[in-house]
Write a structure and sequence with these properties.
mainly beta, 466 residues, 30 strands, 4 domains, Pdz3 Domain, Thrombin, subunit H, 8-stranded antiparallel β-sheet
Length: 466
């Protein structure tokens, strides 16, 4: 079975990268012998991962993780895949979804007959079911196979992207396996290998947990892939025009350690965007808690997000509001999330920032700072305070997301909808960071603006724009 699967697995090589992420016959011998007879030449590859090939409407596509290719330049010759006989084919990004960490690539070069296809698993995965992870770990060991079992289902990950719908497995994966298939004993794709787990140690370091691995489950993956292929490269999402938040208060001890001292017990409707389909029905409930979404109890913003992701565009959602113990149920209409709605999210957030003036009509999104608060010089490693001479002048925004030591997710900003997309991906962190440059300089100095949604450095307001 595994030999038949190998020829549908490929290595993805990114040859040209950008400064931030994009918002993406005949066989003479046995398959296994072809796969392992020579070393794979990865000369010129900057980053790499794994993937697999599917057939849709008579055409072959490559499925991989978004994080494998989202730093690739949007130009010819940036991404290639390598087949089982080490032939290199140029591909380009058809589309993807950073939230679920999935991407679909289409062939620029005609795929050869050595590349076969694989299909997604139709039946539900079972706990204890045997599975195999196939990929190119570390970019050096193509067609490596590890076995294991499905040890848990529907895992939620503590991250801004790639959060919901994961199988937990004991089939070991490591860097370079990302995007490769997790297959069952029939050779069908049970999931897309996406993440690994680490555990902290007392000295502050982390240890890789080789028996805890995560793969985006097949049913969800197939729906997303179909959406991407059939809808011009994107996943179709509902839009309600709501800002939902939950605040947590922190303090700091004498040793510089932050700790939680309190927070709101449930998510709260903190705002309604002007283009919300049910604007008049929602506005009376601003400030009220949200206890249920479509009858499902929700305890935090992430659980609200999980329920919202199940709603297709045009379908209503039932929200139960709790106003100091008085509950009311409201049916909220939705529409399709498009560039227009993403721009609305961007304006809604940026217009709440008292420290900057935003110019939406410049050649690029530009911000004019009034204050040195949350305005820094960034050299790629450290942040430095700005001086008053740097105030009251425009700076062009080129990336937005979350910039930090532990986690950095920054997306390229080319227009206002890109900023709205970055907001949807980053808002759970309670802030949005913006990289910008001075158009009057030679672009050697990078500036960073940070917008805390709570307006208070001691309060983290996790937010959801949906």
């Amino acid at each position: 079975m595994l030999e038949n699967v190998l020829s549908s697995v490929i290595t993805v090589g990114v040859h040209k990268t950008d400064f931030a992420k994009q918002t993406l016959g005949f066989r003479g011998t046995g398959v296994a012998e072809v796969a392992y007879e020579k070393a794979l030449d990865m000369a010129g590859v900057v980053t790499s991962g794994s993937g697999f090939v599917i057939m849709k409407n008579g055409k072959k596509y490559v499925v991989t993780n978004a994080h494998v290719i989202e730093n690739a330049l949007d130009e010819e010759g940036s991404i290639y895949i390598y087949s089982i006989n080490r032939t290199r084919y140029e591909v380009r990004v058809l589309g993807g979804d950073s939230f679920y960490d999935i991407a679909v690539l289409e062939f620029v070069d005609t795929p050869g007959p050595e590349i076969t296809t694989i299909k997604f698993k139709a039946d539900e995965p079972r706990l204890g079911e045997t599975v195999y992870a196939i990929g190119n770990p570390l970019g050096e060991y193509p067609y490596s196979v590890s076995d294991g079992i499905i040890s848990a289902k529907n895992r939620v990950r503590e991250s801004y992207t790639g959060k919901f719908g994961f199988l937990q497995t004991t089939a070991t994966v490591i860097w370079g396996n990302s995007g490769g298939p997790l297959v069952d004993v029939k050779g069908d794709v049970a999931g897309i290998n996406s993440q690994i787990a680490f555990a902290p140690t007392p000295d502050g370091s982390v240890i890789w947990q080789s028996q805890i691995n995560f793969a985006l489950e097949a049913k969800l993956s197939e729906r997303l892939v179909n959406d991407i292929i059939e809808n011009d490269g994107r996943v179709m999402r509902a839009y309600f025009g709501m800002e939902i938040g939950q605040s947590f208060e922190y303090d700091i001890d004498w040793f510089g350690n932050w700790y939680l001292i309190g927070g709101e017990g449930m998510p709260v409707l903190t705002g309604v965007l002007p283009d919300a389909p049910s604007y008049s029905a929602l506005t009376p409930h601003i400030g009220s808690g949200i206890s249920h979404v479509n009858g499902v109890e929700v305890r935090n913003v992430e659980e609200v997000l999980g329920e919202m992701e199940n709603i297709r565009p045009g379908s209503p959602v039932s929200i139960t509001f709790d106003d100091n113990g008085t509950t009311s149920q409201v049916s909220v209409s939705s529409k399709l999330l498009t560039s227009t709605e993403l721009e609305s999210i961007a304006r809604f957030v940026l217009d709440q920032n008292p420290d900057i003036e935003v110019n939406y009509n410049d050649i690029m999104l530009s911000v004019n700072p009034f204050s040195n608060d949350n305005f820094y010089i960034f050299d790629g490693y450290d942040f430095y305070e700005t001086d008053d001479e740097m105030l009251d002048k425009p700076y062009y925004v080129i990336a937005a997301g979350v910039s930090g030591d532990a986690l950095q997710n920054m997306w390229i900003i080319q227009d206002l909808k890109d900023f709205g997309t970055a907001m949807k991906l980053s808002a759970l962190g309670g802030m949005i960071d913006m990289y910008a440059f001075d158009p009057d300089s030679e672009g050697e100095e990078l500036l960073m603006f940070r917008q805390n949604f709570s307006g208070d450095d001691y309060i983290i307001k996790t937010a959801l724009y949906y």
